[in-house]
Amino acid sequence: xxxxxxxxxxxxxxxxxxxxxxxxxxxxxxxxxxxxxxxxxxxxxxxxxxxxxxxxxxxxxxxxxxxxxxxxxxxxxxxxxxxxxxxxxxxxxxxxxxxxxxxxxxxxxxxxxxxxxxxxxxxxxxxxxxxxxxxxxxxxxxxxxxxxxxxxxxxxxxxxxxxxxxxxxxxxxxxxxxxxxxxxxxxxxxxxxxxxxxxxxxxxxxxxxxxxxxxxxxxxxxxxxxxxxxxxxxxxxxxxxxxxxxxxxxxxxxxxxxxxxxxxxxxxxxxxxxxxxxxxxxxxxxxxxxxxxxxxxxxxxxxxxxxxxxxxxxxxxxxxxxxxxxxxxxxxxxxxxxxxxxxxxxxxxxxxxxxxxxxxxxxxxxxxxxxxxxxxxxxxxxxxxxxxxxxxxxxxxxxxxxxxxxxxxxxxxxxxxxxxxxxxxxxxxxxxxxxxxxxxxxxxxxxxxxxxxxxxxxxxxxxxxxxxxxxxxxxxxxxxxxxxxxxxxxxxxxxxxxxxxxxxxxxxxxxxxxxxxxxxxxxxxxxxxxxxxxxxxxxxxxxxxxxxxxxxxxxxxxxxxxxxxxxxxxxxxxxxxxxxxxxxxxxxxxxxxxxxxxxxxxxxxxxxxxxxxxxxxxxxxxxxxxxxxxxxxxxxxxxxxxxxxxxxxxxxxxxxxxxxxxxxxxxxxxxxxxxxx
Length: 677
What we know:
Elements: E1 3-6, H1 10-20, E2 30-31, E3 33-37, H2 45-48, H3 51-58, H4 65-77, E4 81-82, H5 110-117, E5 119-120, H6 122-135, E6 139-145, E7 148-155, E8 158-161, H7 180-185, H8 206-221, E9 228-229, E10 242-243, E11 247-252, E12 279-281, E13 301-304, E14 306-313, E15 326-329, E16 333-335, E17 341-343, E18 349-356, E19 360-361, E20 364-365, E21 376-377, E22 380-395, E23 402-415, H9 417-420, E24 425-432, E25 437-450, E26 462-468, E27 471-476, E28 500-502, E29 513-515, E30 521-528, E31 533-543, E32 555-559, E33 567-571, E34 582-590, E35 598-605, E36 613-624, E37 631-639, E38 642-650, E39 656-661, E40 667-676
Parallel strand pairs: 4-5
Antiparallel strand pairs: 1-23, 2-10, 3-26, 6-7, 6-9, 7-8, 11-14, 11-40, 12-13, 14-25, 15-18, 16-17, 17-25, 18-24, 19-25, 20-21, 22-23, 22-24, 22-25, 26-39, 27-36, 28-29, 29-36, 30-35, 31-34, 31-36, 32-33, 32-35, 37-38, 37-40
Helix pairs in contact: 3-6
């Protein structure tokens, strides 16, 4: 099927919705289901849904400030590994390509990293770590290092270096974790002094020598000459899954579950490596994070990789339950006596289905190496049956633009992987007229998932907690196409200050908006939700100066009353020793008491008398969802060479329940499925 891209502006979409009516949303569904096992290291998203959850889990047994810092450091070593940093569709149509990596295409959201990736290069993982350190109440920054990027954390009145990429801690004589200033004053501190804590074990022994020489260079050149970079990572994506009636959400632990190396599905590219991201020198998948007094490289062998999250959705067209998966439809759409969707008056009618999750959509690359710049299949496939001819179109930007396709006839199979890979959501629209009908449809979306987020079983009986918080997500992620403001449907343009101009992004790293004078400016976006909003998360990347002017003022604010009053979400606090020319500003606000379905988010820009701009923006509205419908949970694992399965069902309305999976000894995780019945 050939697809062509068309500009269907939000204005025209709103005309359609105004004419035909919006979709009712008082429906059954399962909003925000999570699982948590009693595994001591990898209990799953029920324990790790937010940064705060992770920090609480990692530091629960620690009493002192440094004890908490080291505990969090060790948790990071078991949940992320060194690999090529992810690249995503973050700047217009610039194709993500790890062979030609660009910082502006790297997702610096720690939540996105935790759900979909769990791997990156040194600068990336240390940016992801910032929200975790901040959740502990610590100030944090990245630091330049010879051929490397490190990080420092401030507690107990001094800075301390925590290198989670190279697994290196250096200790002062008093057993406190050393910082740049300490090591520059005494490079001999770089040695294995505090076993069993790790000290630069990876790529044995070359990396240890490289780090030792690097610290000697820091000492000789002066630690003050190595850049300090603040506010380079953030957390915004809420990590919420929403299941509709008839939808199956399966996580497969084994990357070869689809048929081996040639059938693997991932979002990754490497000119040298086949089969997707992986790493053997890592503590991920290791039971302990330690090195004995006599260093043993085998203790850092973890064989980390990725797993898959699969969504299978077959809407029941014979009942109104299919509307759970519909984001828009025309008023002349009807369900016939034969349970088929068609036009009620012969005029064109449409129905638009959607998918959204915190897991990045993957694909099976034709060359088994590159699913980014190369062709990939089986990441998202639509199958079904129609009578006559039905037109299909795809949107990857929330319905702002559409890629128009040919019509489908009879029984069809439509692979749209090339259009949606590397994304987190899609919309599929079926248009029919005359006697043409949609008889059945089935959506299969396969995503990449961080292996460390899989809710792993434990032997000899595993305690599992299922929780459903009845929440969904509405996202705003504008695509800054140069010169075309019609493609910014969520911006409230009449509230943009006169001194802010839009130019879009022609190149990676460009400002999409910029202030035309030295005065403060503002940009406002709207979040519309199908249900009352509970919370709003937002993040903005802004242009800075080095050094930072003291009276700079960058803020995020939210309004629940159409801009009459504003509630603070975040305010930038960037020290004047910052050496980074961009910075992320992120925050959240509880709006549950307002009982509204629409809010405004304002980005306030002021660089202390200099021009500045907005480079990136995203916002998420967390809203209520309906009472949970019946659910079935299926665990599959291997035990003594045989596949075992355990099923457990729960009635509607269950928000939390505990149960035991009857595992034996010597188990191996295979899959876990949540079914909305």
